[in-house]
Amino acid sequence: WPWPLLRRCGRYHGGGCDEQQDVAAAKKCFERAADAGNAHAQLWAATLRANGEGCEGGVDYPAAHRYWEASAAQGLAAAQYALGLAYEHGYGVAPCEAPAAGHYAS
Predict the structure, then answer these.
(1) Could you give the CA distance from residue 61 to residue 2 in angstroms, rounded to a whole number?
(2) What is the average pLDDT score of the chain?
(3) Is the dihedral of CA 29, 30, 31, 36 positive or negative?
(4) What CA–CA distances, in Å, run from 60 to 46, 65, 69, 101, 105?
(5) Could you tell me the maximum CA-CA distance found in the chain, to the nearest angstrom?
(6) Can you tell me the distance from the alpha carbon of 84 to that of 32, in angstroms, rounded to the nearest whole number?
(7) Which of 30, 64, 78, 96 has the fewest CB atoms within 10 Å of its CB?
(8) What is the pLDDT of residues 19-36, one digit of tens each?
């Protein structure tokens, strides 16, 4: 997934002065790139899921964790940090300091 396509996904999400924001379209776009293995798209897809943006049922932590894990496995520090926060504060998992510290240290 080349960067110009990811920027298009971001435009759906961020909107602009003369652009209509379409979070559902952004989610679909980011998840398509995420499923193709793009680490940055995986982080965005996870963030949208964790915030319940563009999701029918609201917050979806299991899907967010899958995308964060995939992104972190590719070495994206922001995904490691997000996982640390999830384990520290119990976002979709039982709060646990050991895995949180491990993700923060990565």
Answers:
(1) 27
(2) 83
(3) positive
(4) 9, 9, 14, 23, 26
(5) 46
(6) 25
(7) 96
(8) 556 778 888 888 988 999
